[in-house]
Amino acid sequence: AQKITQTQPGMFVQEKEAVTLDCTYDTSDQSYGLFWYKQPSSGEMIFLIYQGSYDEQNATEGRYSLNFQKARKSANLVISASQLGDSAMYFCAMREGLGNYQLIWGAGTKLIIKP
Amino acid sequence: DTGVSQNPRHKITKRGQNVTFRCDPISEHNRLYWYRQTLGQGPEFLTYFQNEAQLEKSRLLSDRFSAERPKGSFSTLEIQRTEQGDSAMYLCASSLSGSVTDTQYFGPGTRLTVL
């Protein structure tokens, strides 16, 4: 079974609109962390936002926010006021359990912002 | 504060040759990770170091792959007798143990093409 599922292979969004990228996860651990990264065509993986399993508030970082629904095991990334520079691949990743350090990744969503 | 650096950025080699990649982590980070990413996929974990100790290796890391971090600073990843299936982006990341999120920060990657 997939540990991280990103159901949207690609998305087109008009500039300045908000966009939600979906991520569902599967773990039996109580302690885990969820990450979102952006990968432009240049290839570098850029950290965007983190949500811990015990965090009661949804994480926010500038234009990025995370809609964390623990019971549904979803951690959707919301980008407000999208910009042309937001066009990239977006990956959801999970670090599960205590003492685990590797990240488990989804297949990614390709986001294209239209002018 | 310089980020993670990787060299070379691109490597083209013939099947059967050996290649070595270098990763320099963020200076105060004691954890270092290697991932492999093929086109259209999320990264796959290869190995992890804490200081100079290699603490975890994926079964993806066959006998032809070896990684070192001799002084707990930079790391090298060597692939012996390269095969066409080794063609991928090799990503290095680093993190600081004891930080709240232990977020992994990535370098620009080394793109390997095996002819």
Residues in helix, % of chain B? under 10%
| Class by SSE composition of chain A | mainly beta
Query: How many distinct beta strands of chain B?
Result: 11
Proportion of strand residues of chain B: over 45%
| Secondary structure tally, helices of chain A | 0
Shape of chain B: globular
What distance separates the N and C termini of chain B? 37 Å
Approximate shape of chain A: globular
Most extensive contact: A-B, 23 and 27 residues
Order of helices and strands of chain A: EEEEEEEEEEEE
Distance between the termini of chain A: 38 Å
Task: Characterize the largest beta sheet of chain A: strand count, sense, and whether it forms a barrel.
Answer: 6 strands, mixed
Spans where pLDDT lies below 50 across 5 or more residues of chain A: none
What does this structure look like?
The complex is a heterodimer of chains A (115) and B (115). Chain A has strands at residues 4-5, 10-14, 19-21, 24-25, 32-39, 46-52, 60-61, 64-69, 74-79, 88-96, 104-105, 109-114. Chain A is mainly beta. In chain A, strand 7 and strand 8 (64-69) form a beta hairpin. The radius of gyration of chain A is 14 Å and the shape is globular. Chain B is mainly beta and 115 residues long. Chain B is built from no helices and eleven strands. Chain B has strands at 5-7, 10-13, 19-24, 31-37, 44-50, 53-57, 65-68, 75-79, 88-95, 105-106, 110-114. In chain B, strands 2, 4, 5, 6, 9, 10 and 11 form a seven-stranded mixed β-sheet that branches. In chain B, strand 4 (31-37) and strand 5 form a beta hairpin. Chain B is globular and about 40 Å long. Chain B starts with a strand and ends with a strand. Classes of the chains: A mainly beta (115), B mainly beta (115). Chains A and B meet through strand 5, strand 6, strand 10 and strand 11 of A and strand 4, strand 5, strand 9 and strand 10 of B.
